[in-house]
Amino acid sequence: MKKKLFIALSVFVVLSVAFTTLVIATKEGGFGKSFLEIFNKAQNERKVIASAGDCKIYDTEFDSYKLFYTEKTDEEIFEYLFKNKLIISEAKKAGITVSEEEVIKAVENNKKIFFESAKEDDPGYILLKEICDGLNIKIENYFNLDAIKDAYSISILKSKYYQYLLNNDKTNSLSKDGENIFVENLKNELYNKIKDDIEYYKN
Fold it and tell me: What angle, 0 to 180 degrees and rounded to 10, lies between the N-to-C axes of helices 74-93 and 146-168?
């Protein structure tokens, strides 16, 4: 499906605290309503649907990814979510931190890009407005939500961790593709250590 890109935080940034900026894709009607249902559930009654040790996956995290990536299998979504949680855990163990100033700067930069790029008749803008109307807030205030700031913080945390690992890697300097392979190999290594211990619960 052809996607029209807009700089904005998406549903799975808010719910799973995974990325800094993301694509909002053109979706069929009712998508914003589905988002709001997941968002409201995340605030009050989310449930653990899979775990491995201290690593837990919640139903709202899974549902939010499923909402965007309908072509992905459940297994692929669970694997992605576990890998993401494992990276966050490793970053914290390594002593990586994110300052409030870093978060504010990232939020303001992306907020500026969004309002300079998006038009009111763009599908991405319409979708975000639908979401904000449901939350009873203005679009500009969306970026000030605590959940959004937390999402930016986690994204920055992961980026700093990747850079920390790359800076400490004693092998030859890597190209951009090489860095991506390095990161994917790390995720796979962490996931392979826990995948046999994963327990799934009824949603």
Answer: 70
Q: Give me the architecture of the 11-200 domain, per CATH.
A: Orthogonal Bundle (1.10)
The answer to whether 19 and 105 are in contact (CB under 8 A) is no
Residue 182 neighbours by CB under 8 Å, 6+ apart: 165, 166, 169, 174
Predicted TM-score of the model (pTM): 0.77
Adjacent-strand bridge partners of 55: 52
Q: In what order do the strands lie in the sheet with 199-200?
A: 55-58, 48-52, 199-200
89-126 residue pLDDT tens: 999 999 999 999 999 998 888 888 888 887 888 777 87
- In angstroms, the CA 66 to CA 121 distance is 26
Phi, psi of 173 (to 5 degrees): -60, 145
Q: Which residue has the tokens 């459940």?
A: 74
Residues whose CB falls within 8 Å of the CB of residue 123, separated by 6 or more in sequence, listed in order: 4, 24, 25, 26, 27
